[in-house]
Design goal:
Elements (H helix, E strand, L loop, with lengths): L1 H19 L6 H19 L5 E4 L10 E4 L4 H8 L9 E3 L9 E3 L3 H11 L18 H16 L1 H10 L5 H10 L19 H18 L2
Antiparallel strand pairs: 1-2, 3-4
Length: 217
């Protein structure tokens, strides 16, 4: 009976947390993850040795101009195309502070809830289990804000790409063009993981205890 009560309380607390902790991403967070994804997309093609031929062959016999792919507009266009769709790969990790709440991979809360379901505990989040992994309202909102921001600052991104790649995109776009100094706090937030972190260890222990108790039901 004690194990049942503990499991029910934990489920209620975790489920309530997934609803009460919802909020909309701020401008700093949107810019942070937009630049993270775009910088990553560009880095994947940065070492390409491909050469492109541009322009038309004229009757005068003038040859088409050759340019390196890794410095071409084509590379930037391909990287930017649907870049905000990648935001939908993020999940809300409500147990983490600030911008760290947005990360790829399943959150600690959701992992715990799924473990409880697998142990036979009934968990009601107000939606079918099949939809638990769908992008949340927060992440969907971030994706929309990303698209708007990218459209508004398209020329700034192009300026960085062609003339200022010696700077990190986050610094050039977010710090220098979009955010006020008072709005830049999230850019300093870095995820260091739970290893060696007392709070993280305690949270992991709690998850193990909750799953263990549910398994005894």
């Amino acid at each position: 009976m004690k194990a049942l009560l503990l499991a029910v309380l934990c489920v209620c607390g975790l489920a309530a947390g997934t609803e009460e902790d919802e909020r909309l991403p701020n401008k700093c967070e949107v810019c942070k993850f937009l630049t993270t994804e775009l910088q990553e997309a560009l880095e994947k093609t940065g070492r390409s040795k491909e050469v492109l031929e541009v322009g038309e062959v004229l009757d005068t016999g003038r040859r088409r101009r050759k340019i390196k792919y890794n410095t071409s507009e084509t590379r930037l266009t391909e990287a930017v195309d649907n870049i905000c769709e990648r935001i939908l790969q993020y999940n809300v990790h409500a147990e983490r502070p600030g911008s760290l709440r947005y990360a790829k991979g399943s959150s600690q809360t959701m992992t715990t809830l799924k473990n409880l379901v697998n142990k036979g505990v009934k968990v009601d989040l107000g939606m079918p289990y099949e939809l638990w992994d769908e992008p949340s309202a927060e992440v969907t909102n971030m994706k929309k804000q990303c698209e708007t921001m990218l459209e508004q600052y398209e020329e700034v991104v192009e300026d960085w790409y062609f003339h200022h790649q010696d700077q990190r995109l986050e610094r050039f776009l977010c710090e220098n063009h979009i955010l006020k100094t008072s709005e830049q706090n999230c850019l300093k937030e870095m995820w260091k993981g739970d290893t060696g972190n007392k709070g993280g260890a305690e949270a992991a222990d709690e998850e193990q205890r909750t799953t263990h108790d549910a398994g005894e039901l």
